[in-house]
């Protein structure tokens, strides 16, 4: 008996002997071009891609095993696995957020009540407003307070631009264990995820659409996280973001969401600079 795949005819004896079929097509991942694709257990795969994905998933599982066992481990999980440009942001808290007027006092009070709403009612949060108003600062504070209130919840703070850059970089380094599969599993399994600066590559005054890579990555993360709380910050309103991103992403952001408007908040970077003078 012979298995036919297009013009290719494979004897059953080869399948029984090796467990797979080597195909004439080659992988298009940089550095894998010389490898033939194989048909294995109903899938057409590149053997090196498969090995790298398995290695990434193994690295993730060892990380999770270490941080799942204790309350302190879950807090360490936040500090050691959050994806940031500058790790100093992880030292921020709601208490040290500077509030100088009624609007800022209101937003700080809202940040203090949000952790329990997220824990008890599985809420999403969308924090929006101008750059420099302390959205990232309060997002970190909310996540840290969630860890204090409920040690069963593992939280992560993730800079979206940094995440996308790390994934792109891994495409060109086959030895990198923390590649796309690693990040996708890490973010999808995290109980409470903070995604900072969503839509950062887009301008409020443009009709430029987000790239396919950005949209696909965000959609895959949010789709895998269905039923879990995700907190977002953006310089764009949800209406502005909806004109530039896939509606499936917007729909997931808006599910059971708490909105926090920072548009009346002063520039905290400017205040912090003056205090240092």
UniProtKB/TrEMBL annotation:
Q: Which InterPro entries match?
A: AAA+_ATPase, DnaA_dom, P-loop_NTPase
The chain positions of domain AAA+ ATPase read 121-254
Q: Check the record and name the SUPFAM superfamilies matching this protein.
A: P-loop containing nucleoside triphosphate hydrolases
Gene3D superfamilies linked:
P-loop containing nucleotide triphosphate hydrolases
User: Would the keyword Lipid metabolism be found if you checked this record's keyword annotation?
Assistant: no
An example molecular function term from Gene Ontology annotations: ATP binding
> Source organism's superkingdom?
Bacteria
Q: Which SMART domains match?
A: AAA
Q: Name one GO biological process term.
A: DNA replication
Question: Could you confirm whether the keyword ATP-binding appears in this record?
Answer: yes
Task: Provide the alphabetized UniProt keywords.
Answer: ATP-binding, Nucleotide-binding
Q: Kindly give the PANTHER family that the UniProt entry links to this protein.
A: ATP-BINDING PROTEIN RV3427C IN INSERTION SEQUENCE-RELATED, CHROMOSOMAL REPLICATION INITIATOR PROTEIN DNAA
Q: What is this protein called?
A: ATP-binding protein
């Amino acid at each position: 008996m012979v298995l036919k795949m297009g013009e290719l005819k494979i004897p059953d004896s080869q399948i029984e002997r090796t467990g797979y079929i080597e195909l004439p097509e080659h992988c298009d991942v940089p550095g894998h071009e010389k490898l033939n694709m194989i048909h294995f257990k109903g899938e057409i795969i590149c053997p090196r891609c498969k090995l790298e994905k398995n290695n990434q998933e193994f690295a993730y599982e060892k990380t999770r095993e270490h941080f799942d066992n204790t309350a302190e481990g879950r807090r360490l999980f936040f500090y050691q696995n959050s994806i940031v440009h500058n790790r100093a942001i992880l030292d921020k808290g709601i208490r040290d957020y500077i509030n100088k007027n009624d609007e800022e006092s209101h937003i700080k009070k809202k940040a203090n009540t949000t952790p329990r709403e997220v824990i008890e009612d599985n809420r999403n949060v969308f924090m929006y407003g101008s750059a420099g108003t302390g959205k990232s600062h309060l997002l970190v504070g909310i996540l840290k307070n969630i860890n204090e209130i409920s040690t069963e919840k593992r939280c992560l703070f993730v800079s979206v631009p940094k995440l996308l850059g790390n994934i792109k970089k891994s495409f060109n380094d086959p030895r990198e264990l923390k590649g796309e599969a690693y990040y996708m599993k890490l973010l999808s399994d995290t109980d409470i995820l903070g995604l900072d600066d969503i839509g950062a590559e887009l301008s409020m005054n443009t009709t430029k659409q987000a790239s396919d890579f950005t949209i696909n990555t965000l959609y895959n993360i949010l789709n895998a996280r269905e039923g879990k709380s995700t907190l977002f910050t953006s310089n764009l309103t949800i209406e502005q973001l909806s004109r530039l991103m896939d509606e499936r992403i917007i729909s997931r952001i808006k599910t059971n969401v708490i909105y926090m408007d920072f548009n009346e908040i002063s520039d905290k970077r400017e205040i912090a600079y003056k205090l240092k003078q």
